[in-house]
Amino acid sequence: MSGTPAAPRGVVHCADGVAVARTLEDESVDLVYLDPPFNTGRRQTREQLRTRRAEDGEGDRTGFGGRRYETERLGSRSFEDARDDYLGFLEPFLVEAQRVLAPSGSLYLHLDYREVHYAKVLADGIFGRVNFVNEIIWAYDYGARPKRRWPAKHDNILFYAKDAARNRFNAEDIERIPYMAPGLVGPEKAARGKLPTDTWWHTIVSPTGKEKLGYPTQKPLGVLERIVSASSPPGGLVCDFVAGSGTTGEAALRHGRRFILADSSPEAFEVMRRRFAACDGVVFREQAEVRLPLPLRERAGGEGPAAGEA
Known about the structure:
CATH superfamily: Vaccinia Virus protein VP39
CATH topology: Rossmann fold
Order of helices and strands: EHEEEEHEHEEHEHEHEHE
Strand order of the largest sheet: 9-7-8-6-2-10-11-1-12
Oligomer: single chain
Radius of gyration: 21 Å
Number of helices: 7
Distance between the termini: 42 Å
Number of domains: 1
Number of strands: 12
């Protein structure tokens, strides 16, 4: 007996993210996360390596306990990260994000020190300064340490509401963190932990860890899970129009949300195809061709709880 095909849980597009966003209806999305290139002025490259144990005195690197290992280079992925008109590149993404977000929806714009201040002025003009909610600092401690300035060890994430008075923020769904001085708050509070502040300490994706997919600028799943759980409803629709390795989609699936991902890079598309290959209900499209690829979630009154009421 035939029935209506099940709606996909996620759609991955190999296409320009702005073009994909323009296929979506107004106010149809609960959360947009954007992690565009940071305009570093250099080519971003991630080497893919495989190491195997070598005999003593052989190999090209030393590991824990003095053990020797031989490295095999499997390949690399890279992209050019330099634009003369960065704000001109970014503006269409912000305009479309503001249009497609539901009244209770949120934008998280992930940048670093190079462009975040200029992008904040641009986003204020599109979303309105009154709808700026937070600047989140994602702090980490990895990589080179220059000797002529303070080492840059954080990214900036700008959090905007479509409408600050109606914005959804699921405070009770956010994974809590330990108190720095648990003895000062009592055993009950210490056991429960506290809500994270606007400064998030979280390691980068380890170059040798299981999470690594070999994609340059891959972001940690833990950071995206916090964003998804805080700013989207169960069953809601999460979009990432500069999706890279697809971490936003995996965070959405883990928390019972649906997703639309887009990236114009064929390399990114192949990384995402492998990432979601074993996931039921994820479909792959090589162009922005379908309007409303996922059905809209039923909304009671068209809005979520106001900030602080979740």
